[in-house]
Amino acid sequence: MGFDKNNQDYNVLVSGGSIAGLTLTYWLHHYGFNVTLIERNDGLRLGGQNIDVKGPGWEVMQKMDLEKKLKAAHTTEKGIRFVKKDNTIAGEFPANNALSMTQEIEILRGDFVEILFEKVKDKAAFRFNTHITALQNDHTGTEVTFNNNQKEKFDLVLIAEGIGSSTRNLVFGSTVKFKYTGIYSSYFTMKKAATDNHWARWHNAVGAVVFLIRPDNHSTTRACIFFRSPERGYEKLSVGEQKDLLITKIKNVGWEADRIVDAIRESDDLYVERVSQVKMPTFYNERVAVVGDAAYCVTPLAGKGTDLAIAGAYILAGELAKNSNYTEAFQNYQDLVKPYATSVQKLPPGVPRLAYPSSKMGVVVLNGFFSLASSKFAKFLTNLFGGSKSKTKSDFQLPTY
Ligand SMILES: Cc1cc2nc3c(=O)[nH]c(=O)nc-3n(C[C@H](O)[C@H](O)[C@H](O)COP(=O)(O)OP(=O)(O)OC[C@H]3O[C@@H](n4cnc5c(N)ncnc54)[C@H](O)[C@@H]3O)c2cc1C
After folding, report:
1. Per the structure, how many domains does the chain have?
2. Site to substitute for ligand 1 among 239, 293, 297, most atoms within 8 A of C-beta
3. In a domain, 355, yes or no
4. Is the CB of residue 45 less than 8 Å from the CB of residue 69?
5. By alpha-carbon position, which residue is closest to atom 51 of ligand 1?
6. Is residue 157 located within the same domain as residue 193?
7. If you take atom 6 of ligand 1, which residue's CA is the nearest one?
8. Start and end of every FAD-binding domain (predicted)?
């Protein structure tokens, strides 16, 4: 098989069944490719809080005719409040405020993944509990060995496995660089409490711990705990060990920590990840290309990871459809996406250090900023928290295929 393709005879393996992988599957199928999607987990991974879909990512969703469904899954969040230990409000930013992290489209990551899956479930062969253990390229294709030791040949392998991608590491080895921001994030679902409402609540606790509690549309509450730490590989611990770690970190920091400790113990969707950017000199090697967080994770601090994953998937599929040579297609994809990803990866000055004070005084100062910022220091805070609504970062022209 060469790349003088009749798309229907062209077998593409997509690895990773989340936002990048499912979007990619939709567009590859749309152009006539034969797609197999593998996912390491035993089902879709539906954990996490809200994710940002805007800019080019939103344009792609419109092209996929998903606008209505995504809007209907709105989490009901009205805006964000920065709250002190007694839950009094230090600063408040409603959804329509340029500083608010609450967007017009607020959707849970899990709802989003389910909506995408619904759209593509009959457009590819899906295999769960499956991952790649080895790959071998030759002029006829890529021979893939799966975790069940079965071997199979594909024309192309596209990796959409998120930040911790093991197949990317197999193929690209030490060329993959990570820029650790000094923060770990953890996400889980918990029971709704009397203090939860339609506002997201951000609380800076001592010990460089940040709680972000957000409403959802499932009668539960989505919790996120960020904490500063040297890089320790916590993302590789077992779930039980991660629970113990988090409980130890937060049990004495006050605010609603007691309730959150209980929720961590009960949780069944805990997800712990280091907040790191991924930087790859090239997004492809022979017949293998990388897309989404696996290739250019920007971190939630930059607020554009999902947008980039969607746009990247759309462009990768579009270039493969447009070019009769896969190397050219991969190169064009890289030329289009890399500059955008690199610009988004430039975090504003002060992030993350200023936003995660470790001392009591630092927390007081930060809360002071929040209350002033509600009226005066808007620009400063826009920069501090990633400027998710800033103009420069959304200046990206999505190609038409
Ligand atoms: C459980 C979970 C919760 C998250 N919560 C948030 C959140 O609350 N806020 C936020 O901003 N971002 C969150 N993220 C990250 C966010 O989804 C991404 O930043 C972004 O949407 C880009 O998506 P992606 O498809 O590139 O990667 P991801 O969404 O990370 O998806 C990667 C997928 O690949 C699968 N996978 C991993 N390794 C392999 C392998 N070797 N073989 C096959 N499949 C593999 C994973 O199980 C996962 O389904 C979360 C990710 C996950 C997995």
Report:
1. 2
2. 293
3. no
4. no
5. 48
6. no
7. 48
8. 10-323
Tell me: pLDDT of 389 over 50. no
Q: Which helix (H) or strand (E) holds 91?
A: strand 89-94
138 and 44 assigned to the same domain: yes
- Is 106 close to ligand 1, i.e. is its CB under 6 Å away? no
Q: Residue 363: how many CA atoms within 13 Å on its side-chain side?
A: 20
Q: Is residue 166 part of a domain?
A: yes
Q: Does the beta carbon of 222 sit less than 6 angstroms from any atom of ligand 1? A: no
For the segment 18-27, the average pLDDT, to the nearest whole number, is: 98
Nearest to 20 by CA among 160, 131, 124, 120: 160
CA of 46 to the centre of ligand 1 (A): 9
Verify that 100 and 126 share a domain, yes or no.
no
Cα(362) to ligand 1 centroid in Å equals: 32
For residue 203, what are the β-bridge partners? Answer: 211
45 and 158 fall within a common domain: yes
In this structure, is residue 382 part of a structural domain?
Answer: no
Which tens digit of pLDDT belongs to each residue from 203-219? 999 888 999 999 999 99
Is residue 31 within 8 A of residue 321, CB to CB? The reply is yes
The Å distance, Cα 138 to ligand 1 centre, comes to 30
